[in-house]
Amino acid sequence: MSINKEEIKKVAHLARINVSQAEVDQVEKKLVGILALIEKMQEVNTESIEPMSHALDINQPLRADKVTEKDIRDKSLALAPHSEQSLFIVPQVIE
Amino acid sequence: MLNLSLKELSQALEKKQFTSVELTQFFLNRVKRLNPSLNAFITVDEAKSLAMAEKSDQLIQSGEKAILTGIPIAQKDIFCSEGWKTTCGSKMLENFISPYDSTVIHKFNNIGAVNLGKTNMDEFAMGSSNETSYFGPVKNPWNLDCVPGGSSGGSAAAVAARLAPAATGTDTGGSIRQPASLCGFTGLKPTYGLVSRYGMIAFASSLDQAGPMAISAEDCALMLDVMTGHDEKDSTSLNRKKENYSNFLDNKIDGLRIGIPKEFFEDGLNSDVQKVIEEALKQYEKLGAKIVDISLPNNHLAIPAYYVIAPAEASSNLSRYDGVRYGYRTKEYDDLMDMYFKTRQEGFGDEVKRRILIGTYVLSAGYFDAYYLKAQKIRRLISNDFKVAYEKCDVIMGPSAPSVAFKSGEKQEDPLAMYMQDIFTISTNLAGLPAMSIPAGFINDLPVGLQLIGNHFEETKILNTAHIYQKNTDWHLNAPKGID
């Protein structure tokens, strides 16, 4: 499997990153190389192997849904590129 | 103050030979003088550090002193620190002042260690040369034309040049051990889950692990004593009894079985590095250890599997940088979509964008099984290889990196060549094992690191094994010239 310019544009769209026409060639060259490296995985048969998502095969613990953090709302809002009246402001999405 | 170990610094503070304020000022002065040529720090805040030192002096005065109380520690700029700029080496977080402390920072603050400043790093910890930082490359103190390694390159240069007595780092595929090797000091990546990831900016969550970077194994053990422990705020943090890592350093290593994986001495290893490693192994034999041949037959698949798993997790983790709640937002945009696209185009550097694209691709419809699931299966094969190996040996050794520090710019345009830097370190991240790099010699005045890999939770054993070597050799005490 390899990747072409059309697929790069599609993936970039999914990732919400602009890739300009000028950048596509460079990106393609490098991604093709990385995917060729990844392709080595196909050399081995892994049919009966269980996938491993945690290095120690430990399950995710659950906890009670309680508030444990102190209130840092104002501090957090102050970090926003744009906030008003305790709300994050983004361009209008609904007409 | 310059060449004292953490234990010696601690004793001197206790005996009032100097204060924490004096010690902190001493290192701040070194940072001021030497950082312009190294670029090891992104943020230094003298007033904040000195205020912390003053508080530490009060703790010492009142007899409430832990071992690292009053000692300045350089913190990788991946750890959220309340009131400090925390950038992760990215334009995306250039002006992000953390509203809270990561658990690692909290633990250091809690015992009165001093935050000496935030160290430079590859952007979002993606890199092996510290050249992807938005805040410029870090230089290797042994040779300013060379890279310090990465991604914890700023912490590495700071420790090597004695700008800080010790530092923190994080290691997703080798980011503590490879720079420790290239800069000639001791670094340890703990068992996955031993150190909390809460407030540590995420790259690849199933691989990321924080650890100490310092001159010696003894220093690393003292740091680890502070950093570890179960944390409810990190769901992958292991719930087990906290160990004491500094109590067993002097255990005898007679009869220790050292496994040597033949795959670590095949293609890709520089022959001079191989000679240095072989010398170190001879030294271990003299100290009573036995060499055992082992095999890690799937090691060659570690890099391919890593470059699926790590970018996949990164593409998910980095989706939070959208220009809405914090971080960079593009200046001009037509609508919400346009804002997302431009913010992420302008806020991320090339390597980060490449990895997000790869990660998005391997997770996209139709490719998940062929890539992500396949990589997770290979991860198990790699982990099983280690299980088999540890039936025959106690500790595994080999090189930390395939070569000594390379020239700045040399691999910058070739991601594949850069990725090969982690050929000996990545498999232990996939298997979640603890591993160290310790100085073992030099090639043309550039340091070479020996890697020690332990079984899960055997930090004590690898620290003990490293400490015995360091008691009988002095490679770790060598400092670069021109930093006095």
How would you briefly describe this protein structure?
The complex is a heterodimer of chains A (95) and B (484). Chain A is mainly alpha-helical and 95 residues long.
Q: Can you write the helix and strand succession of chain A as a string?
A: HHHEE
Radius of gyration of chain A: 22 Å
**Name of the CATH first level of the domain at 6-256 and 473-477 in chain B:** Alpha Beta
CATH superfamily of the domain at 6-256 and 473-477 in chain B: Amidase signature (AS) domain
What can be said about the biggest beta sheet of chain A?
2 strands, antiparallel
Task: Describe the model.
The complex is a heterodimer of chains A (95) and B (484). Chain A has a domain at 5-42. Helix content of chain A is 35%, strand content 4%. Chain A has three helices and two strands. Chain A has helices at residues 5-14, 21-38, 73-77, and strands at residues 83-84, 87-88. The mean pLDDT of chain A is 91. By secondary structure, chain B is an alpha/beta fold. Chain B has a domain at 6-256 and 473-477: Amidase signature (AS) enzymes (Alpha-Beta Complex), CATH 3.90.1300. Chain B is 38% helix and 13% strand. Chain B has helices spanning 6-14, 20-38, 46-61, 103-110, 153-160, 177-183, 217-227, 271-286, 302-317, 336-347, 350-363, 369-389, 415-419, 426-431, 459-472; strands at 41-43, 72-76, 114-119, 166-170, 186-189, 210-214, 257-261, 290-294, 395-399, 435-443, 446-454. At the A-B interface, helix 1 and helix 2 of A face helix 9, helix 10, helix 11, helix 12 and helix 13 of B.
